[in-house]
Protein 1
Amino acid sequence: MKNPNGAASTPAGGSALPTPSAAASNPDWRRKYGGWIAVIAILAALCVIPFYMKFYHIELSIIYFMSVILAVSYRLITTTGDWSFAHIILQGIGAYATALLAKHVGIPFIVMVPLAGLVTAAVGAIVMFPMLRTKGFAFFIASFAFGEFIRMVWMKVNNPFGGTGGIVNIPSPELFGLKLTSSVNYYFACMAFMVAAVFIMWRLDRSRIGNAWKAIHTDDMLAECMGVNVARYRTLAFVVGSFFAGIAGALLAYRMGSIDPHNFEITQMVYLVIWVVIGGASTFWGPLIGVTILTVAFEWSRPLLEWRPLMFGSLLIMFLIFLPGGLESLLPALRRPPGEHYARFRRWLTTFRPG
Amino acid sequence: MDSATLIQTLLNSVVTSSVYALVAVGLAMAFGVMKMANFAHGEFFMVGAYTVYVLYQLGGFNFWVAVALAIPIVALLGVATERIIFRQTGANILAGFMATVALGFVLQVAVGRIWGVGLMKRIDTPYMGAADIGDAHVGWQRLLVIPCAIAMLIALRYFLYNAKLGKALRACAQDPEAAALQGINIRNMTMLAMALAGASAGLAGALMAPIAAITPYMGHGVILIAFIVVVVGGMASIGGAVIAAIILGFIHTFVATLTDSLIATMVGVGFMALTLVVRPQGLLGREKS
């Protein structure tokens, strides 16, 4: 956990590394600033590419930015060891809050997005209260049940949630007189929120609070003995994660213009889990890698739409069996001698033998 | 609610409770041994229902033959799940669980691709007609579920408390390390627990096939209810699961009759939330499992 930034993000932006001579003259230089340079290069590239992209790909990038917020905030909750199954529902709460408040109260875009986050955080705090009594696996089940409960409320209550039809005619977003209905404008708005959210969560992850969360994950009894208020820190992680999920939901609601309970089905949640698990949840950058690679994979698999859950489900099973650390553990795994992997494979084969 | 509706609702409650009990008992038993649950349990139920659909409706087998075959088929699926997933992921509980979430996906798509997703499957009811009890009118097909479920539960109980293998299974659930020291093979017991879980879920699905709407996604509602039942009953407690199944079956049926099934499910979740706050270990759960 000492320096996840420099070590892990460099490969992601390999093309943006400084010139070899500069790196060679001062080997520390690369280690110290390589990560930052990669991040700045990626951001610069993100600022330029929308002008050269097709409309469809800009829309895809907007969805991708929301997915990044979701994946990183989901990973933030999991640092305490609580794997929630309600994160998509939390995004839905943000989306519903946006739809209702923007439509009926007329709150402007720039206020509404953080406000949606706050509403979601408040709901997250309420839901977390009974769920605090559960741990690990039971937490997963409880969050699944609560998520379904909230989704049923949306489906059942026609006023104000609009039942299964959802809410339509959400006002189009506007920022300082600038219409955000255009794809490029909305792309930059989403990107700004994504960068801010990821930056805040990255700081949190490396702060004292982040360390307390990881301590709870490692051994909650020990953390309690060291003076960490486990209940409070678990709630905090869930509430912060809910906040950012709500922001992702607000961005989604504004883009879609209409939302309904089907946007937040369990299938979406499983895909979110797949992003985070395949990327790897033990470092901050794992989910980012996972969501990036799988967004591309999703687009490629578009011709096989009906088979998609089967393909990605099998992929998840394969990853959990053969590379449980996710893609972020791929490099260390490749460094291990091949005999070790062969032995692992042999061990796997024995399970098909009788007895 | 007049007396006819009351009797009818009571009988329906018993039917619902027995199905819940069948599904939840397997989940609780597997949880007891592995400390891990199977999210694809609802899909096991679905596979049981599809077995009856394929064998009875498409294959022309006798209904009871189809039901009897559904039990070993889904039990085999349970064993395969244990071997391919749980044994590999080992002590990593969440990995095993996530993998079964993915397995649920895989089964849904596989079944949907083979037999179609679109229209729900109709099964000709093997036992037409209805029993007249008082003024109430309950279909034979529904009433049949009750003795089958009770027979299965009694057989399971007899096995767990009287057979040597069953005792070993319970020992594993109580303390895996101590059980291993007595020479019990934990892996085999895990496999046995998954087989029994699959068998009971398969039976439940097979019995419900002529009554419920058969779709590849029918497992979703089942797993939600099963999880609620298991949490209320106390995770690893088989007796607790049966009691919780009876309570929730009655609550669900009565609320569903008075309002609708969506609200009934919401009440079930609320009941679970209340249990978690008041008695987190569940009705019959021990403080520390």
Protein 2
Amino acid sequence: MLDVVKTVPIEYYLWLSCALFCIGVFGVLVRRNALVVLMCVELMLNAVNLLLAAFSTYLSDAQGQILVFFIMVVAAAEAAVGLGILVMIFRNTHTTDIYWLDKLRG
Amino acid sequence: MTLAVFLTLAIASIVFALLMVLTKNPVHSVIFLLLTFFAVAGQYVLLNAQFLAVVHIIVYAGAVMVLFLFVLMLLNLNTEAEPRQTARWKLAAALVSGMLMLTLVGTLRAGAALPIPENTDPHVGLVQNLGKVLFTDFVVPFEMAGILFLAAMVGAVLLAKREIR
């Protein structure tokens, strides 16, 4: 039996994940630099990953950790494509301020 | 001892995440996010998910953050060019995320208490066990992840090219 399962209640991991996720939401809302917004999305994905890994260990089920790998795959692909789009936008508008990126608005 | 390590890592990750959001310089944001990732990797080690911790460090600290830093340097963004949100918008954002936090914690507390597992298998996070599950039960999603990576790579190269002829 793992030491962490005996001494740390699973609820603590719930609260930690909630806190990290909400900080990520706060960052997405409050920052105007598109690059930092993408970083905050990564933080939110990480909060979910942590909770999945915690439940995987507490329930002795490897499927949770496999799911974390797939989330990492999607996060890495998202970062690559997102940064590609960002570089393209910067080349055309010379800004990464999301305030000015409303060209699609009718 | 384990609880102390958990609390230290938890407080460190929350403080670094807050600093990441609140600091004005985007380069500092990247560094603080990196420190947050290291704290989360520490949690994985604590949960006896060593392989996950190593992959987390390699993928996030080694690949994703370097990509972010590289684009940041390429675009030459600094504190003076950093756009600022108005105070009213900041207050609204803090209110929204705080209320989301309250809702999540309240909902999770209202539910039934989670049972403490009687017995756990300490080998679940080791690479032998994970590899067995990944290449038997999850082999189709694994191959699809490869296709997704290929599509993302082609898309990123196509987007970053100067002109498409």
Protein 3
Amino acid sequence: MYTDKIVLITGSSRGVGYIIGKYFLDNNAIVIGLSRGASSIDNRNYFHYEVDLAQPDAITRVFKIIAKEHKRIDIVINNAAVLTSQYSMIMPLKNAIDMVQVDFLAVFLVARESAKLMRKNTYGRIINISSMAVSLEPIGDSLYAACKAGITTLANVMAKEYASMHITCNTVAITAIETDMLKQHSPSARTKIKDIINNLPVPRMAEADDILNVIEFFASERSSYITAQTIYLGGIN
Amino acid sequence: MNKNEIHDIVISKVVSLVDTLPEDKKFSVDQNTTLFGNGSSIDSLSLVSIIVDLETTFSAEYGLDISLTDDKAMMREKSPFESIKSLAEYISELVNDK
């Protein structure tokens, strides 16, 4: 389905990013993965770059290497995110800064550096992974939800800026999915997530295919007329 | 890198842009071609495209990381983007400062 397409995914070494990476590889894409840690995908069509997305200069540097080694990018999945769920008054400053840098600024930088490469081919799909937290606004997620709301706005404005280059920008706001990352949450955080899930219109966790279905839709060549859109999973709006 | 080389690079980027325009939007390119403000032949997104092309070219082909849109450029009384000539002169300054 994606033969010859080059897909860049941030946060590709685990969780949702890993699932999305495997999906594109299984469908014949060439996948460029960015994450802080080492590669967890072994595939001849997978190219991994270790980069700390909290460092803007590191992002610019890695894109220079990508431009030299791969020449172009067709699809970008802005997936990487960090989350500290904590009451705003006691949120550690470092965690707050990390969230702004990874969940918001890095999304901006990855999207724009990708767009610079996409414009040469006048083709591109930029897909931001957002969260149910934008709509549900749960206690403790003030900054995380604000950053995720921000990337929707980023996508919508970039959609206008890049439309003439046939680059679309869309957002999928996902619900919680059973991944290793989720298992790392504290018992109280897991209870909180379960309570939220139980109150969704479709009261279950997301499955990989729920997310991939929307990614496939936004990434499709047929979706050239679909831009500046946000799709929420699980019945949230 | 001398001024003439820089001037030629700027011209080539604008010509590349003109090549992508529909016939009725094409315009002739010389050093006085206006890029920004009254009388400009291109829209703001096209100017952005030229700026990105130039920054990318100077970085990738000459190892010169220049930013054409930082405060230094924006705070100038006379915009470097008024014409091809003024843009080439501004890039020349940046390159010589490196």
